[in-house]
Design a protein that fits this description.
Length: 358
């Protein structure tokens, strides 16, 4: 299959696009079209097409509803100042989708074809890419298992679709530090589990801790490893970086955290800028001690949604540490500016992360 196999059926009536881009929010409205194709064991992926956005009709016994065999991705298309549309490391999302697929016994999708599917959809929906500072068109590629019948086994039928949602600036009022609770009861991933895969189950199991943290006034939960509950891992939808003395420390990719594309980008930029970088296990004791002694200079999350999110305070078992007086650190701000600069086409792209859509 290649891009020319994608059949495009345009919507007869287009939705009204939001006039006020300051209230776009995230994932609330969707564009006029979607990409969709089906897979059948023995036949492979078939019938790739872009058609008007529509509901899916699935059998109540469909595999996805019962055994959660599903995976997804999240990436953005950006409008540049000279009115081009571009994507950031989209093929890395295609590769990660395939790694998730392998873990979940789901069929892979050719990376180049999947990229073409995303690109074609963005081209069709180019008028939906918002114009205001910090806004983007969020893409949600999703694969679901769709055998009609019960029984726990790898399904033989799948649906892959891509939907797109214009998204507002993550920080409409400017970058602001968040408070994080280090979770000491629930865990997200275990050794040999599926923590590295972008699959719904990982998020379903995180909701309870997230809700409880929210009630206590924290915006995110920082997970500890599921085996010993000693080592810090990642937060709900971001990887975490800690600047201890002059070194950037982040959890290693050992199978339990999502290998974030923003994480990889920041580590690359950090090495470019001459920072010492350590991908290693960081115990919560070491982190709290560094916070108490003043050696923890800055902390921030990295992810597609927020790009870089400064941390102002960390709480663990009732003890709070304030990071950088609760203010945005210099290094955090610099990474935010560099990466958003590349994504929106305002800064040079030395690693060829950007691909032009139109
Ligand atoms: C659990 C989790 N960790 C980390 C990330 C950050 O990944 P990325 O930088 O690819 O968006 C995400 C967001 O997708 C996530 O859901």
């Amino acid at each position: 299959m290649n891009a020319s196999d994608i059949k495009i059926t345009r919507a007869q009536q287009l939705k009204q696009k939001p006039q006020d881009e300051s209230h776009l929010g995230f994932g609330k409205i969707f564009t006029d079209h979607m990409f969709i194709m089906e897979y059948e064991q023995g036949k492979g992926w078939m019938n790739p097409r872009i058609e008007p956005y529509h509901r899916l009709s699935l059998d109540p016994a469909s595999t996805v509803f019962h055994y959660a065999q599903e995976i997804f991705e999240g990436l953005k298309a950006y409008r540049t100042a000279d009115n081009h549309i571009q994507m950031f490391r989209a093929k890395d999302n295609c590769r990660r989708l395939n790694r998730s697929a392998e873990r979940m016994c789901m069929p892979e999708i050719d990376v180049d074809f999947n990229y073409e599917a995303m690109k074609t959809l963005v081209e069709v929906e180019k008028d939906w890419v918002p114009h205001s500072e910090g806004t983007s068109l969020y893409l949600r590629p999703t694969m679901i298992a769709n055998d009609e019948g019960l029984g726990v086994h790898a399904a033989k039928n799948y649906i892959y679709y891509i939907i797109a949602a214009p998204s507002g600036a993550y920080y409409p009022a400017g970058l602001a530090p968040i408070n994080i609770m280090i979770e000491d009861r629930y865990v997200r991933a275990v050794r040999g589990g599926m923590g590295f895969a972008k699959t719904g189950g990982n998020y379903a199991c995180s909701i309870k801790a997230g809700e409880e943290a929210l009630k206590k006034g924290f915006s995110q939960v920082l997970w500890l490893d599921g085996e010993t509950m000693k080592y810090v891992q990642e937060v709900g939808a971001m990887n975490m970086m800690f600047i201890i003395d002059d070194t950037i420390v982040t959890a290693p990719l050992e199978g339990s955290i999502l290998p974030g594309i923003t994480r990889d980008s920041i580590l690359t930029l950090a090495r470019d800028k001459g920072f010492k970088v350590e991908e290693r296990r960081l115990s919560v004791e070491e982190l709290m001690a560094a916070g108490e002694s003043g050696r923890l200079k800055e902390a921030f999350g990295t992810g597609t949604a927020a790009v870089v999110s400064p941390v102002g305070m960390l709480e663990y078992q009732g003890k709070e540490i304030v990071v950088n007086n609760g203010e945005i650190g210099k290094v955090t701000m610099d990474f935010y500016n560099t990466l958003t600069g590349i994504q929106w086409g305002k800064k040079e792209d030395p690693h060829n992360w950007i691909t032009k859509v139109c």
